[in-house]
Write a structure and sequence with these properties.
The structure holds 2 protein chains of 2 kinds. Chain A has 12 helices and 12 strands. Chain A starts with a strand and ends with a strand. In chain A, helix 2 links the parallel strand 2 and strand 3. Helices cover about 35% and strands about 20% of the residues of chain A. In chain B, strand 7 and strand 8 form a beta hairpin. The chains are: A alpha/beta, B mainly beta. Chains A and B meet through helix 4, helix 5, strand 5 and strand 9 of A and strand 6, strand 7 and strand 8 of B. Strand 9 of chain A pairs antiparallel with strand 8 of chain B, so a sheet runs across the interface.
Amino acid sequence: MTRVEITGIGLHPFGRFDGVSVTDMGVIAVRQALADAGNPTFQAAFCGTAYSGVAAGHKVLGAIARTGMPIVNIEAGCASGAAALALAAGAIRAGQYDTVLVFGIEKMPRGIIRSSFFEPWREQAGLAATPSYFALRAQRLLRESGLTKNDLAQVCVKNRAHGALNPDAMFRSPVTVESVLASRIVCDPLHLWMLCSPNEGAAAVVLRSATAPRITLRSAVLRSHLPGSVLGEATPLAGIDDTDITPPSTLAATDAYAQAGVGPQELDLVECQDTDAARELLAWEELGLCAKGAQPGRLRDGVHALGGPCPVNVSGGLLSKGEPLGASALGQVVEIVRQLRGDAGARQVPGARLGLAHTVGRGANASAVIISR
Amino acid sequence: MPRRSIEPNAFELRDSTCALHGGYSPTSQKFHFPRQPVCPYTGVDDVVPVELSANGALWGWTVVTSAPPGYVGPVPFGFGVVELAQEQLRIVSRIQIDDPGAVQFGDPMELCADVVGHDDDGTDVVTWAFRRVDS
Protein backbone atom coordinates (compact mmCIF):
# COMPACT_ATOMS: atom_id res chain seq x y z
CA MET A 1 0.00 0.00 0.00
CA THR A 2 1.25 3.46 -0.91
CA ARG A 3 2.22 5.56 2.08
CA VAL A 4 3.26 9.20 2.13
CA GLU A 5 6.76 9.99 3.34
CA ILE A 6 8.08 13.39 4.38
CA THR A 7 11.57 13.39 2.88
CA GLY A 8 12.57 17.03 3.21
CA ILE A 9 11.86 20.05 5.41
CA GLY A 10 12.85 23.70 5.12
CA LEU A 11 12.12 26.83 7.12
CA HIS A 12 12.69 30.55 6.86
CA PRO A 13 12.43 31.68 10.51
CA PHE A 14 9.25 33.50 11.56
CA GLY A 15 9.62 37.15 12.55
CA ARG A 16 9.92 40.56 10.92
CA PHE A 17 12.39 40.93 8.05
CA ASP A 18 12.38 44.39 6.50
CA GLY A 19 13.65 44.39 2.94
CA VAL A 20 13.14 40.64 2.49
CA SER A 21 10.25 39.81 0.14
CA VAL A 22 7.81 36.98 0.63
CA THR A 23 9.29 35.41 -2.52
CA ASP A 24 12.81 35.60 -1.01
CA MET A 25 11.60 33.80 2.12
CA GLY A 26 9.83 31.15 0.06
CA VAL A 27 12.97 30.51 -1.97
CA ILE A 28 15.02 29.91 1.17
CA ALA A 29 12.51 27.45 2.67
CA VAL A 30 11.93 25.60 -0.62
CA ARG A 31 15.64 25.20 -1.45
CA GLN A 32 16.30 23.92 2.08
CA ALA A 33 13.50 21.36 1.81
CA LEU A 34 14.57 20.20 -1.65
CA ALA A 35 18.21 19.89 -0.55
CA ASP A 36 17.11 17.97 2.56
CA ALA A 37 15.19 15.56 0.31
CA GLY A 38 18.19 15.07 -2.01
CA ASN A 39 17.02 17.48 -4.74
CA PRO A 40 14.35 15.24 -6.26
CA THR A 41 12.26 15.95 -9.34
CA PHE A 42 8.73 16.82 -8.25
CA GLN A 43 5.61 16.58 -10.41
CA ALA A 44 3.47 19.21 -8.64
CA ALA A 45 3.72 22.03 -6.13
CA PHE A 46 1.11 23.33 -3.69
CA CYS A 47 1.60 26.73 -2.03
CA GLY A 48 -0.41 27.95 0.96
CA THR A 49 -0.77 31.70 1.44
CA ALA A 50 -3.48 34.21 2.33
CA TYR A 51 -1.91 37.64 1.83
CA SER A 52 0.72 37.14 -0.89
CA GLY A 53 -1.42 37.98 -3.94
CA VAL A 54 -1.84 36.35 -7.32
CA ALA A 55 0.39 33.40 -8.30
CA ALA A 56 2.64 33.82 -5.27
CA GLY A 57 3.84 30.22 -5.44
CA HIS A 58 4.72 30.64 -9.12
CA LYS A 59 6.95 33.58 -8.21
CA VAL A 60 8.88 31.47 -5.68
CA LEU A 61 9.46 28.58 -8.06
CA GLY A 62 10.07 30.95 -10.96
CA ALA A 63 12.90 32.52 -8.97
CA ILE A 64 14.72 29.17 -8.87
CA ALA A 65 13.78 27.98 -12.37
CA ARG A 66 11.68 25.07 -11.09
CA THR A 67 8.47 25.59 -13.06
CA GLY A 68 6.58 23.67 -15.72
CA MET A 69 4.72 21.36 -13.34
CA PRO A 70 1.30 22.32 -11.95
CA ILE A 71 1.64 24.97 -9.22
CA VAL A 72 -1.51 25.49 -7.14
CA ASN A 73 -1.93 28.42 -4.75
CA ILE A 74 -4.25 27.75 -1.83
CA GLU A 75 -5.94 30.01 0.71
CA ALA A 76 -7.55 28.50 3.81
CA GLY A 77 -6.84 31.15 6.45
CA CYS A 78 -4.64 29.91 9.30
CA ALA A 79 -4.88 26.40 7.82
CA SER A 80 -3.59 27.38 4.35
CA GLY A 81 -0.36 25.38 4.65
CA ALA A 82 -2.22 22.35 5.97
CA ALA A 83 -4.73 22.61 3.12
CA ALA A 84 -1.81 22.52 0.67
CA LEU A 85 -0.40 19.50 2.50
CA ALA A 86 -3.77 17.69 2.47
CA LEU A 87 -4.18 18.18 -1.29
CA ALA A 88 -0.61 17.03 -1.98
CA ALA A 89 -0.93 13.94 0.20
CA GLY A 90 -4.26 13.04 -1.39
CA ALA A 91 -2.76 13.31 -4.88
CA ILE A 92 0.10 10.99 -3.90
CA ARG A 93 -2.26 8.45 -2.31
CA ALA A 94 -4.39 8.52 -5.45
CA GLY A 95 -1.33 7.70 -7.53
CA GLN A 96 -1.45 10.99 -9.42
CA TYR A 97 2.08 12.04 -8.42
CA ASP A 98 5.12 10.37 -6.92
CA THR A 99 6.85 13.43 -5.42
CA VAL A 100 5.26 16.76 -4.49
CA LEU A 101 6.62 20.01 -3.08
CA VAL A 102 4.45 21.77 -0.48
CA PHE A 103 5.26 25.21 0.86
CA GLY A 104 3.68 28.10 2.71
CA ILE A 105 4.69 31.75 2.60
CA GLU A 106 3.49 34.96 4.22
CA LYS A 107 4.41 38.56 4.95
CA MET A 108 1.60 39.91 7.12
CA PRO A 109 0.70 43.57 7.53
CA ARG A 110 1.53 44.84 11.02
CA GLY A 111 -1.10 45.08 13.77
CA ILE A 112 -4.56 43.54 14.00
CA ILE A 113 -5.15 41.34 10.96
CA ARG A 114 -7.35 43.06 8.36
CA SER A 115 -9.40 40.72 6.24
CA SER A 116 -11.49 41.18 3.09
CA PHE A 117 -13.73 38.58 4.76
CA PHE A 118 -15.58 41.44 6.50
CA GLU A 119 -17.87 43.93 4.77
CA PRO A 120 -16.57 47.51 5.25
CA TRP A 121 -19.58 48.46 7.39
CA ARG A 122 -18.71 45.73 9.91
CA GLU A 123 -15.21 47.15 10.27
CA GLN A 124 -16.65 50.65 10.61
CA ALA A 125 -19.04 49.49 13.35
CA GLY A 126 -16.24 47.81 15.33
CA LEU A 127 -17.87 44.40 14.79
CA ALA A 128 -14.92 42.89 12.88
CA ALA A 129 -12.03 43.08 15.33
CA THR A 130 -10.76 39.51 15.50
CA PRO A 131 -9.08 39.79 18.95
CA SER A 132 -12.42 40.87 20.41
CA TYR A 133 -13.94 37.54 19.32
CA PHE A 134 -10.90 35.82 20.90
CA ALA A 135 -11.63 37.72 24.12
CA LEU A 136 -15.26 36.59 24.26
CA ARG A 137 -14.17 33.00 23.67
CA ALA A 138 -11.58 33.33 26.45
CA GLN A 139 -14.12 34.86 28.82
CA ARG A 140 -16.54 32.00 28.16
CA LEU A 141 -13.80 29.42 28.76
CA LEU A 142 -12.92 31.02 32.09
CA ARG A 143 -16.59 31.22 33.09
CA GLU A 144 -17.35 27.59 32.22
CA SER A 145 -14.11 25.88 33.30
CA GLY A 146 -13.01 27.63 36.47
CA LEU A 147 -9.78 28.72 34.78
CA THR A 148 -8.45 32.15 35.70
CA LYS A 149 -6.47 34.90 34.02
CA ASN A 150 -3.43 33.52 35.83
CA ASP A 151 -3.92 30.24 33.99
CA LEU A 152 -3.99 32.09 30.67
CA ALA A 153 -0.72 33.75 31.67
CA GLN A 154 0.66 30.33 32.60
CA VAL A 155 0.15 29.16 29.00
CA CYS A 156 2.27 32.11 27.84
CA VAL A 157 4.94 31.23 30.42
CA LYS A 158 5.01 27.63 29.16
CA ASN A 159 5.18 28.47 25.47
CA ARG A 160 7.68 31.30 25.84
CA ALA A 161 9.93 28.99 27.90
CA HIS A 162 9.78 26.54 24.98
CA GLY A 163 10.37 29.37 22.48
CA ALA A 164 13.51 30.42 24.35
CA LEU A 165 14.95 27.06 23.22
CA ASN A 166 14.00 27.56 19.55
CA PRO A 167 16.52 29.54 17.46
CA ASP A 168 13.83 30.04 14.78
CA ALA A 169 11.30 31.71 17.12
CA MET A 170 10.52 35.44 17.00
CA PHE A 171 10.38 35.88 20.78
CA ARG A 172 13.17 34.06 22.58
CA SER A 173 12.97 35.44 26.10
CA PRO A 174 11.07 33.66 28.88
CA VAL A 175 8.25 35.53 30.63
CA THR A 176 6.59 35.30 34.04
CA VAL A 177 2.93 35.31 35.03
CA GLU A 178 3.51 38.75 36.53
CA SER A 179 5.06 40.20 33.37
CA VAL A 180 2.32 38.76 31.16
CA LEU A 181 -0.36 40.31 33.38
CA ALA A 182 1.58 43.59 33.38
CA SER A 183 1.44 43.83 29.57
CA ARG A 184 -1.33 46.10 28.35
CA ILE A 185 -4.91 44.84 28.10
CA VAL A 186 -5.93 44.58 24.43
CA CYS A 187 -9.44 43.33 25.16
CA ASP A 188 -10.16 41.91 28.58
CA PRO A 189 -9.33 39.19 29.63
CA LEU A 190 -6.59 39.14 26.98
CA HIS A 191 -3.38 41.06 27.55
CA LEU A 192 -0.95 41.86 24.72
CA TRP A 193 1.44 39.00 25.50
CA MET A 194 -1.45 36.50 25.47
CA LEU A 195 -1.95 37.21 21.74
CA CYS A 196 0.30 35.96 18.96
CA SER A 197 1.87 38.43 16.54
CA PRO A 198 1.00 38.25 12.85
CA ASN A 199 4.40 38.23 11.11
CA GLU A 200 6.48 36.82 8.23
CA GLY A 201 8.09 33.55 7.30
CA ALA A 202 8.06 30.48 5.07
CA ALA A 203 8.12 26.72 5.48
CA ALA A 204 8.36 23.84 3.03
CA VAL A 205 8.17 20.05 2.93
CA VAL A 206 8.77 17.45 0.25
CA LEU A 207 6.40 14.46 0.09
CA ARG A 208 6.81 11.24 -1.87
CA SER A 209 5.15 7.88 -2.14
CA ALA A 210 7.00 5.15 -0.29
CA THR A 211 6.47 1.59 0.89
CA ALA A 212 8.77 1.85 3.94
CA PRO A 213 8.91 5.51 4.93
CA ARG A 214 11.19 6.82 7.66
CA ILE A 215 8.91 9.74 8.52
CA THR A 216 5.28 9.03 7.62
CA LEU A 217 2.52 11.55 7.02
CA ARG A 218 -0.25 9.45 8.57
CA SER A 219 -3.08 11.89 7.90
CA ALA A 220 -3.63 15.50 6.84
CA VAL A 221 -7.21 16.67 7.26
CA LEU A 222 -8.92 19.98 6.58
CA ARG A 223 -12.46 20.70 7.81
CA SER A 224 -14.72 23.75 7.92
CA HIS A 225 -17.23 24.80 10.57
CA LEU A 226 -20.78 23.64 11.13
CA PRO A 227 -23.19 26.59 11.36
CA GLY A 228 -24.51 28.08 14.58
CA SER A 229 -21.77 28.93 17.05
CA VAL A 230 -21.65 32.69 17.62
CA LEU A 231 -18.07 32.57 18.92
CA GLY A 232 -16.73 30.17 16.30
CA GLU A 233 -13.94 31.13 13.93
CA ALA A 234 -16.53 31.80 11.22
CA THR A 235 -17.20 35.03 13.24
CA PRO A 236 -20.91 35.39 12.41
CA LEU A 237 -23.11 38.23 13.69
CA ALA A 238 -25.43 35.84 15.54
CA GLY A 239 -25.69 32.24 16.66
CA ILE A 240 -27.76 29.68 18.52
CA ASP A 241 -27.18 27.31 21.44
CA ASP A 242 -23.99 25.50 20.38
CA THR A 243 -23.94 22.76 23.02
CA ASP A 244 -24.32 20.05 20.38
CA ILE A 245 -22.41 21.73 17.56
CA THR A 246 -19.04 20.00 17.06
CA PRO A 247 -16.25 22.55 16.54
CA PRO A 248 -14.18 22.29 13.34
CA SER A 249 -10.99 21.38 15.22
CA THR A 250 -12.75 18.33 16.65
CA LEU A 251 -14.10 17.40 13.21
CA ALA A 252 -10.58 17.57 11.77
CA ALA A 253 -8.91 15.75 14.67
CA THR A 254 -11.51 12.96 14.72
CA ASP A 255 -10.96 12.29 11.02
CA ALA A 256 -7.17 12.52 11.40
CA TYR A 257 -7.12 10.01 14.29
CA ALA A 258 -9.36 7.61 12.36
CA GLN A 259 -7.24 7.81 9.19
CA ALA A 260 -4.00 7.36 11.16
CA GLY A 261 -5.43 4.59 13.34
CA VAL A 262 -4.23 6.26 16.54
CA GLY A 263 -5.81 8.05 19.49
CA PRO A 264 -4.95 11.28 21.25
CA GLN A 265 -3.50 9.48 24.27
CA GLU A 266 -0.77 7.96 22.06
CA LEU A 267 0.63 11.33 20.98
CA ASP A 268 4.16 12.22 22.11
CA LEU A 269 3.82 15.88 21.19
CA VAL A 270 1.33 18.38 19.76
CA GLU A 271 1.72 21.70 17.98
CA CYS A 272 -1.59 23.55 18.31
CA GLN A 273 -3.16 26.88 17.40
CA ASP A 274 -2.29 29.23 20.27
CA THR A 275 -3.49 32.36 18.49
CA ASP A 276 -4.19 33.46 22.03
CA ALA A 277 -3.57 31.71 25.32
CA ALA A 278 -7.20 30.63 25.71
CA ARG A 279 -7.23 29.18 22.19
CA GLU A 280 -4.57 26.67 23.21
CA LEU A 281 -6.57 25.58 26.27
CA LEU A 282 -9.66 25.13 24.09
CA ALA A 283 -7.60 23.11 21.62
CA TRP A 284 -6.59 20.69 24.38
CA GLU A 285 -10.21 19.62 24.78
CA GLU A 286 -11.21 20.00 21.12
CA LEU A 287 -8.35 17.68 20.07
CA GLY A 288 -9.26 15.16 22.76
CA LEU A 289 -6.08 15.68 24.78
CA CYS A 290 -8.16 16.25 27.92
CA ALA A 291 -11.76 16.18 29.07
CA LYS A 292 -13.79 19.38 28.97
CA GLY A 293 -12.87 21.47 32.01
CA ALA A 294 -9.77 19.40 32.88
CA GLN A 295 -7.30 22.13 31.86
CA PRO A 296 -6.58 23.57 35.33
CA GLY A 297 -5.18 20.29 36.66
CA ARG A 298 -3.21 19.64 33.47
CA LEU A 299 -1.65 23.10 33.63
CA ARG A 300 -0.76 22.66 37.30
CA ASP A 301 0.79 19.23 36.67
CA GLY A 302 2.76 20.31 33.60
CA VAL A 303 1.22 17.54 31.48
CA HIS A 304 1.62 19.64 28.34
CA ALA A 305 4.95 21.31 29.15
CA LEU A 306 8.34 20.08 27.96
CA GLY A 307 9.20 17.20 30.29
CA GLY A 308 5.55 16.18 30.67
CA PRO A 309 3.95 13.16 28.99
CA CYS A 310 2.53 15.11 26.02
CA PRO A 311 4.24 18.48 25.50
CA VAL A 312 2.21 21.02 23.52
CA ASN A 313 3.92 23.69 21.43
CA VAL A 314 7.51 22.74 22.20
CA SER A 315 8.47 25.04 19.30
CA GLY A 316 7.21 27.91 21.45
CA GLY A 317 3.91 27.96 19.57
CA LEU A 318 2.49 30.96 17.80
CA LEU A 319 2.96 32.92 21.03
CA SER A 320 6.74 32.66 20.53
CA LYS A 321 7.00 32.24 16.76
CA GLY A 322 4.27 34.62 15.62
CA GLU A 323 1.83 33.66 12.88
CA PRO A 324 2.61 34.04 9.17
CA LEU A 325 -0.77 32.60 8.07
CA GLY A 326 0.25 30.60 5.00
CA ALA A 327 3.47 29.30 6.54
CA SER A 328 2.19 28.59 10.04
CA ALA A 329 0.77 25.07 9.63
CA LEU A 330 3.83 23.87 7.71
CA GLY A 331 6.09 25.44 10.35
CA GLN A 332 4.36 23.10 12.82
CA VAL A 333 5.03 20.15 10.50
CA VAL A 334 8.72 21.12 10.24
CA GLU A 335 8.91 21.19 14.06
CA ILE A 336 7.31 17.77 14.42
CA VAL A 337 9.61 16.23 11.79
CA ARG A 338 12.64 17.71 13.56
CA GLN A 339 11.39 16.17 16.82
CA LEU A 340 10.79 12.77 15.22
CA ARG A 341 14.27 12.86 13.68
CA GLY A 342 15.78 13.75 17.07
CA ASP A 343 17.08 17.05 15.66
CA ALA A 344 15.30 19.49 18.00
CA GLY A 345 18.26 20.33 20.20
CA ALA A 346 17.52 21.71 23.67
CA ARG A 347 13.75 21.34 23.20
CA GLN A 348 13.90 17.71 22.06
CA VAL A 349 11.07 15.51 23.32
CA PRO A 350 12.95 12.31 24.21
CA GLY A 351 11.96 9.34 22.08
CA ALA A 352 9.21 11.19 20.19
CA ARG A 353 7.50 8.86 17.69
CA LEU A 354 4.05 10.38 17.05
CA GLY A 355 3.02 14.02 16.73
CA LEU A 356 -0.04 16.07 15.80
CA ALA A 357 -0.18 19.56 14.28
CA HIS A 358 -3.37 21.63 14.54
CA THR A 359 -4.59 24.95 13.19
CA VAL A 360 -7.92 26.75 13.27
CA GLY A 361 -8.89 30.15 11.94
CA ARG A 362 -10.71 32.28 9.39
CA GLY A 363 -13.29 30.51 7.30
CA ALA A 364 -13.67 28.71 9.58
CA ASN A 365 -10.94 26.29 8.60
CA ALA A 366 -9.37 23.74 10.92
CA SER A 367 -6.65 21.22 10.20
CA ALA A 368 -5.14 18.22 11.94
CA VAL A 369 -1.97 16.54 10.68
CA ILE A 370 -0.53 13.37 12.21
CA ILE A 371 3.09 12.34 11.59
CA SER A 372 5.02 9.34 12.88
CA ARG A 373 8.38 7.65 12.57
CA MET B 1 -28.23 66.37 12.63
CA PRO B 2 -29.16 63.96 9.80
CA ARG B 3 -28.39 60.31 10.51
CA ARG B 4 -28.48 56.99 8.72
CA SER B 5 -28.30 53.31 9.62
CA ILE B 6 -24.91 51.76 8.92
CA GLU B 7 -26.65 48.71 7.38
CA PRO B 8 -30.40 49.21 6.77
CA ASN B 9 -30.96 45.51 6.00
CA ALA B 10 -29.99 44.64 9.58
CA PHE B 11 -30.77 47.73 11.60
CA GLU B 12 -33.61 50.22 11.21
CA LEU B 13 -33.58 53.69 12.69
CA ARG B 14 -36.95 55.18 13.61
CA ASP B 15 -37.83 58.59 15.07
CA SER B 16 -37.28 57.65 18.70
CA THR B 17 -36.60 53.92 18.57
CA CYS B 18 -34.68 51.39 16.50
CA ALA B 19 -35.01 47.74 15.53
CA LEU B 20 -32.97 44.72 14.47
CA HIS B 21 -34.27 42.81 11.45
CA GLY B 22 -33.88 39.06 11.55
CA GLY B 23 -35.41 36.07 9.88
CA TYR B 24 -37.31 32.98 11.01
CA SER B 25 -37.64 29.64 9.29
CA PRO B 26 -40.83 27.78 10.34
CA THR B 27 -39.34 24.53 9.05
CA SER B 28 -36.11 24.75 11.02
CA GLN B 29 -37.84 26.66 13.85
CA LYS B 30 -34.82 28.90 14.19
CA PHE B 31 -34.26 32.63 14.19
CA HIS B 32 -31.24 34.24 12.58
CA PHE B 33 -29.65 37.67 12.19
CA PRO B 34 -29.12 39.60 9.96
CA ARG B 35 -31.99 38.44 7.76
CA GLN B 36 -30.97 36.20 4.87
CA PRO B 37 -33.00 34.60 2.07
CA VAL B 38 -32.05 31.10 3.27
CA CYS B 39 -31.95 29.79 6.86
CA PRO B 40 -28.21 29.86 7.71
CA TYR B 41 -28.53 26.82 10.01
CA THR B 42 -30.42 24.41 7.75
CA GLY B 43 -30.46 25.81 4.20
CA VAL B 44 -34.27 25.87 4.13
CA ASP B 45 -35.64 28.76 2.04
CA ASP B 46 -38.90 29.51 3.83
CA VAL B 47 -37.52 32.47 5.78
CA VAL B 48 -40.05 35.04 6.94
CA PRO B 49 -38.96 38.51 8.11
CA VAL B 50 -39.16 39.25 11.84
CA GLU B 51 -38.32 42.15 14.07
CA LEU B 52 -36.16 40.85 16.91
CA SER B 53 -36.72 41.55 20.61
CA ALA B 54 -35.18 44.76 21.86
CA ASN B 55 -34.34 43.21 25.24
CA GLY B 56 -32.00 40.39 26.21
CA ALA B 57 -29.39 39.20 28.68
CA LEU B 58 -25.66 39.89 28.54
CA TRP B 59 -23.90 36.67 27.49
CA GLY B 60 -20.37 37.86 26.71
CA TRP B 61 -18.45 41.12 26.65
CA THR B 62 -15.07 42.80 26.43
CA VAL B 63 -13.72 46.30 25.98
CA VAL B 64 -11.60 46.94 22.90
CA THR B 65 -8.78 49.32 23.82
CA SER B 66 -7.28 50.20 20.43
CA ALA B 67 -8.94 50.94 17.10
CA PRO B 68 -9.08 47.92 14.79
CA PRO B 69 -8.50 48.40 11.03
CA GLY B 70 -11.32 50.27 9.29
CA TYR B 71 -12.88 51.45 12.56
CA VAL B 72 -13.26 55.20 13.08
CA GLY B 73 -15.47 55.34 16.18
CA PRO B 74 -14.48 56.14 19.75
CA VAL B 75 -11.99 53.99 21.70
CA PRO B 76 -12.28 52.21 24.08
CA PHE B 77 -15.58 50.61 23.14
CA GLY B 78 -17.58 47.67 24.43
CA PHE B 79 -18.15 44.57 22.29
CA GLY B 80 -20.09 41.49 23.18
CA VAL B 81 -22.99 39.13 22.74
CA VAL B 82 -26.56 39.54 24.00
CA GLU B 83 -28.86 36.54 24.23
CA LEU B 84 -32.48 37.12 23.21
CA ALA B 85 -34.55 34.71 25.28
CA GLN B 86 -37.65 34.66 23.09
CA GLU B 87 -35.74 33.95 19.88
CA GLN B 88 -33.03 31.81 21.55
CA LEU B 89 -30.58 33.85 19.52
CA ARG B 90 -27.17 35.28 20.47
CA ILE B 91 -26.50 38.64 18.81
CA VAL B 92 -23.06 40.21 18.33
CA SER B 93 -23.24 43.86 19.29
CA ARG B 94 -21.49 46.89 20.57
CA ILE B 95 -22.02 47.11 24.33
CA GLN B 96 -22.24 50.55 25.92
CA ILE B 97 -19.53 50.17 28.55
CA ASP B 98 -15.94 51.33 28.80
CA ASP B 99 -15.06 49.22 31.86
CA PRO B 100 -15.46 45.43 31.61
CA GLY B 101 -16.04 45.30 35.38
CA ALA B 102 -19.16 47.46 35.06
CA VAL B 103 -21.43 44.60 33.99
CA GLN B 104 -22.05 40.94 34.84
CA PHE B 105 -23.09 37.80 33.01
CA GLY B 106 -26.88 37.77 32.62
CA ASP B 107 -27.41 41.51 33.14
CA PRO B 108 -30.63 42.77 31.50
CA MET B 109 -29.82 44.69 28.30
CA GLU B 110 -31.81 46.87 25.90
CA LEU B 111 -31.25 47.81 22.28
CA CYS B 112 -30.12 51.35 21.50
CA ALA B 113 -28.58 53.39 18.68
CA ASP B 114 -24.89 54.22 18.68
CA VAL B 115 -23.05 56.74 16.50
CA VAL B 116 -19.80 55.30 15.11
CA GLY B 117 -18.82 57.86 12.50
CA HIS B 118 -19.87 60.59 10.12
CA ASP B 119 -20.24 60.83 6.36
CA ASP B 120 -18.44 63.61 4.49
CA ASP B 121 -21.62 65.73 4.60
CA GLY B 122 -21.82 65.39 8.39
CA THR B 123 -24.54 62.72 8.47
CA ASP B 124 -24.21 60.56 11.60
CA VAL B 125 -23.53 56.90 10.84
CA VAL B 126 -25.48 54.86 13.40
CA THR B 127 -25.22 51.20 14.35
CA TRP B 128 -26.91 49.04 16.97
CA ALA B 129 -25.70 48.59 20.51
CA PHE B 130 -27.02 47.23 23.78
CA ARG B 131 -26.88 48.97 27.15
CA ARG B 132 -27.72 47.77 30.63
CA VAL B 133 -31.38 48.48 31.35
CA ASP B 134 -30.70 50.63 34.41
CA SER B 135 -27.74 52.52 32.91
